[in-house]
Amino acid sequence: MGPLDDFIINTLGLTKLPPYLPTLVYAFLGFSLVHLVIAPWASARWFPVAYASKGRRARNAWAIHVVSQVHAVLIVPLSLWVLWNESPAPDRAFGWDARAGHVYAVACGYFLWDAIDAVVNYTDAGFVLHGVACLALYIMSYKPFVAYYGPRCLLWETSTFFLNIHWFMDKTNRTGSTAQLVNGAFLLSSFFGVRLVYGGKMSFDFLRMLMHLRHELPLSYVVIYSAGNVLLTSLNWFWFYKMISALRRRFGNEEPKERRRLVGNDGNGHVDGNGSEGSARATGVANGYGTHA
Length: 293
What we know:
The radius of gyration is 22 Å and the shape is globular. It has one domain. The protein is built from ten helices and no strands. Helix 4 runs antiparallel to helix 8 and helix 9 runs antiparallel to helix 10. By secondary structure, the chain is mainly α. It is a multi-pass membrane protein. Keywords: Membrane, Transmembrane, Transmembrane helix. One of its GO terms (biological process) is lipid homeostasis. Its main location: membrane. This is TLC domain-containing protein.
């Protein structure tokens, strides 16, 4: 056993982590490569106006969404793979699944990248808290502890897939399109169904289990997992509120404009020179909502 493994196992107590550490490092480097090299190169080539003509901050936000989309496309199928092959009656508190270990390593690599970028390119404290909390919760699963819940919580990234599509549509002048409206419906329904309903059930079940075992666990685990669970659940509800608010603003702003188009300045139903043809429509949800999943 090398000094690093000894530190991880005996000092940190993460007894299952060493075999998966290379996967975690490769995942972090892979997401960093997408962020710093692949996304900028491909985006400048395929989206010369929407990406290449923007400033550094806007280009970084674009690259962040590319990384987020890559993670969502990877982690959701991997989590479903773990759940599909799960034993009939897993130990929800202290059980371990080698397949889950690899999935956690990919997730930890992503959340490590996410937390670092949220600090380096700071925009909102919520994104920093999200990255740090997720990294802490998943890395501590290697004790092993609550490995049962990890793949289930990673299914939250289902809504991230549609969120990123919505964001890219905004940036490529597809705001208000039928495609964005359909994607917005998938975004809201997946966010509500997976994160709030299913995720809320998992969070409640998790907290109940944690309270039942609180005398068998280090105080640090009880505090970190309880706080992280409440924080992430609260962020989900906050972000859902932000999406609904954005949707309501868009409906609210479009109705008066449409009425002016139909009625016109003279009040007789004639469209004046400032009017525009075509009907008003909902223009999607969560405009500008977040840069991190």
